[in-house]
Amino acid sequence: SQKIEQNSEALNIQEGKTATLTCNYTNYSPAYLQWYRQDPGRGPVFLLLIRENEKEKRKERLKVTFDTTLKQSLFHITASQPADSATYLCALEPWGGGYNKLIFGAGTRLAVHP
Amino acid sequence: DAGVIQSPRHEVTEMGQEVTLRCKPISGHNSLFWYRQTMMRGLELLIYFNNNVPIDDSGMPEDRFSAKMPNASFSTLKIQPSEPRDSAVYFCASTWETGGYEQYFGPGTRLTVT
After folding, report:
1. For chain B, N or C: smaller number of CB within 10 Å?
2. In chain A, which residue's Cα lies nearest the Cα of B99?
């Protein structure tokens, strides 16, 4: 069956450390993958997009990797801060048709402790 | 830019009543999406429009759900009759037509059906 899996349990880390979140998928061939941040009571906010021909993309303290062989994306936050505490969702457009139809993972809740 | 606007922000209604949720996408965006988010099922795509035309409504759970987009700046999601299991947060999102672009989410409507 087709599915997207993210760490189901919350990730607790110490301020200043690097947080690494995982997104695995099966039976999809996405042309790109996106990461969103969601705070309680708010809508998801786009963070990064990585295409199938890109291995890695960076934006400030954020880094995303995309391995189409492993069918996995890793999302890193370096020098983490308490303000980074939120739920992070990965999303992909499953069939590469360019229709913008995104399938979302369940999300991983990140808690950064001072 | 005001972002995606949704109304109402909260809706409490009794089972059997009709519920109408409203969305105003970002000006210039020509793709619009309705999502539903619950703890059990995460963020699910219900329907999406391209240039005001419904492209894929395969996520609409039942005939009780209907959506319209009469013009580029307004969309509605209607539930008639509503049931307790429809209780969720409903998000509207918009983006440009071409695939690969991030989606901009509204603040959501929290629906409670008693």
Report:
1. N
2. A98
Interchain CB distance below 8 Å, B98 and A42: no
CA distance linking residue A104 with residue A94, whole number of Å: 10
Across the strands, what pairs with A33? A50, A92
Q: Which segments of chain B have a pLDDT < 50?
A: none
Neighboring chain B residues of A45 at a CB cutoff of 8 Å: 105
Using the beta-carbon criterion (under 8 Å), do A43 and B93 form an inter-chain contact?
Answer: yes
User: What are the backbone angles phi and psi of residue B68, rounded to the nearest 5°?
Assistant: -140, 155
The verdict on a CB contact (< 8 Å) between B45 and A101 is: yes
For A4-60, the pLDDT digits (tens) are 999 878 999 999 999 999 999 988 888 889 999 999 999 999 999 998 889 899 999
Cβ neighbours of residue B85 closer than 8 Å, sequence gap 6 or more? B113
CB contact under 8 A, B103 and A46: yes
Q: Give the integer Cα–Cα distance in Å for B101 and B7.
A: 25
Hey, is the C-beta of B106 within 8 angstroms of any chain A C-beta? yes
Element (H, E) at B101: none
Pairing of strands A45-51, A32-38: antiparallel
Q: Residues 6 or more apart from B66 whose CB is under 8 A from it?
A: B60, B77, B78, B80
Confidence at residue B61, expressed as pLDDT on a 0 to 100 scale: 87
For chain A positions 53-92, those within 8 Å of chain B (CB to CB) are 89
End-to-end alpha-carbon separation of chain A, Å?
Answer: 41
Task: Compute the count of residue pairs across chains A and B with CB atoms less than 8 Å apart.
Answer: 59
